Amino acid sequence: MTEQTIRELSSAVITPSRHRFEGIPSALRAEDVAEVLAVTQRDRTPKGFRDYAILMLLARYGVRAGEITALRLEDVDWRNDIIRIHQSKTGYPSCLHYFLK
To answer: Is residue 13 part of a domain?
Structure first.
């Protein structure tokens, strides 16, 4: 038994609604990213440092949001300037070398 129906059911499938100007979101321009990073870098509060670090990981290293939220202090090797990222897509760890200026 193949568990197929004798009737054609494609007309019963409800398609998702699309809005008139809906499309795939475009990427931010490099100038916009630079401007956001510059504004965030000026905030010298602990929250500002955190936000800047998150935006740098997203913008410069391409780290996924879920990988950032999974980061723990023990993932940062302060002596060797390395951040260990547990990649959600592949499941493999990745080491990012960062440089403080």
So the answer is: no
